[in-house]
Amino acid sequence: MAESTSAITSMLVENRVFDPNPALVAQARVSGMDAYRALCAEAEADFEGFWAKRARELLAWHKPFTQVLDESNKPFYKWFADGELNASYNCLDRHIGTPVEHKTAIIFEADDGAVTRVTYKELLARVSQFANALKSLGVKKGDRVVIYMPMTIEGVVAMQACARIGATHSVVFGGFSAKALQERIQDAGAVAVITANFQMRGGKELPLKGIVDEALALGGCDTVRHVVVWQRTSSACNMVAGRDVWLHDALAGQSTECPPEFVGAEHPLFILYTSGSTGKPKGVQHSTGGYLLWAQQTMLWTFDLKDSDVFWCTADIGWITGHTYVAYGPLAAGATQIIFEGVPTYPNAGRFWQMIERHKATIFYTAPTAIRSLIKASDTDAAVHPKNWDLSSLRILGSVGEPINPEAWMWYYKHVGGERCPIVDTFWQTETGGHMITPLPGATPLVPGSCTLPLPGIFAAIVDEQGNEMPHGQGGILVVKKPWPSMIRTIWGDPERFKKSYFPEELKGYYLAGDGAVRSEDRGYFRITGRIDDVLNVSGHRMGTMEIESALVAKTDLVAEAAVVGRPDDLTGEAIVAFVVLKRPLPQGEEAKQIANELRNWVAKEIGPIAKPKDIRFGENLPKTRSGKIMRRLLRAIAKGEAITQDVSTLENPHILEQLAKTN
Length: 664
Ligand code: ATP
Ligand code: MG
Fold this sequence. Notes:
By secondary structure, this protein is an alpha/beta fold. Helices cover 30% and strands 20% of the residues. The protein contains 19 helices and 30 strands. The strands form 9 sheets. Strands 5-4-17-16-18-19-20 form a 7-stranded mixed beta sheet, sandwiched between helices. The protein binds adenosine-5'-triphosphate and magnesium ion. Magnesium ion binds next to loops. Keywords: Acetylation, ATP-binding, Ligase, Magnesium, Metal-binding, Nucleotide-binding. Its EC number is 6.2.1.1. Mg(2+) binds at residues 553, 559. Residues 102-484 form the AMP-dependent synthetase/ligase domain. CoA binds at residues 201-204, 321, 539.
């Protein structure tokens, strides 16, 4: 590329635009693009004042802060540092005595369909009692507690209870192996592990406590004094005398009142390990004040939350989305939310739609991987198509976790949202704490596959490798130019890795997100083109993986999912290898060759001959993290014919690697 060596060629053209629904605009918190621009201008004119105002309005401070942003030790930024507050107090106590007190906080639907509701008042009592139980076990402010729990009310209560006493939690997804759990317990130096005897997923009873035992037996976890076990099912599990305690025993006799432990705004509320799509997971450390501010503000802006909403974020509490938009944001904002224990395909792939109808969900927030799998399911079985349920309660849809392919976006928009609900395609990361680039439902005209524009106060840009801003239309590296309150504070125990990973010297002190992006020439909208690690270089053209994948998925009669990687090639520098999941049984021999050819020509027609995959492989699935993200780094090894020697602790489906290694 003549203009810049680091420009990423962008070929995907998306002309469809959907203006916001006027009924939504009329009553939105941020109503219309002028209102959005006014907020951006406010942040530009007085950056610290912008954040200070919102921190005072949205949070209850035990001791008010006097300094907004402390930049004295960049990139270790501090926000509201001399202020004191408690996250659990902000999520629960402050609603008492308001109309929210008797409002339903959580509608819980268990795997088997049983429904439980708790009000804010009841939740406060449960959290307080749990907090007292932890205290009685000697857990105190500053201690780390690992939570390895199913997606249940108790999981959220455990997190809130830690926050209440100033203990820093680290939630580990209940699908992780003993080894992955052990590594996280050790890295965090946890004094206690909170778990359940078993969890219920898809009608199956799966062990949790047994895996904790295995993890602790692996060694290196000497800091752990107690394992608190919630009895989810009646099956027996091993209990180690002196170390293990049943939750019901620990709760017995404890008061349902527990004064919150007020902490400094920078006190680490939690550590959460990233999903490991690109390498070894990092222990991302978040603050209390700045984090909670953004969790609440984005609930109000991105989801335009109203008192009457029934909010449903399907993410597990093991992921950042389940922290910010299940355990903290909705509660801080006083919302009613749905929590679901099970999986979207049990008892059948209509479960999500059935639950939306049943609980009259108004805001629904899920991941592209779930959407793609439900499209595939309803294409093969009409009985699980969303049209079979009444989804008229919905007013806003959201997407998170990966770029959403335009064709999956269109299906979600049409068949789930009835062409009435905007889709907020929220770009953010474990490290950012909350949404960064996203449409606002009552303001932003939508373009399928684009996360559109940064939120007010977020100074996102696309730069080359020296940190110079790229013109619109040219892809580059996504950065954030100024700090923001909910940003990562450090990598737990590894401040050097924090500096190197996120604030590399060449980038002028900007925050490096690790994703490639391009802004559209007409609107300046951001579109994520893939991870920087995944950029392809074919005959000198640098391309993001996302566009080729989206072109493949746009062949809607054939393709359910696709992942694209590069392989060294003598002729072109790198050759494109595509791994494809079809909407039909795995093809063999001639049939496979013929479909591969058809897809190659399709891509050439959709985005250009340069993007034609040289090699196409078929599989029944793609290697994914347990949060459902495609692990392209493993596919790169397969494409090169290498053995996999990398960290696969977060891989969901190891057997799929063998299938994909076969050439057609
Ligand atoms: P690791 O950092 O260990 O590789 P990870 O990046 O998958 O794991 P997360 O923090 O859960 O861990 O995911 C953040 C990433 O997910 C973003 O950097 C981006 O690549 C992707 N992502 C999230 N939301 C969107 C979105 N709306 N559009 C495009 N990409 C998204
Ligand atoms: Mg990441």
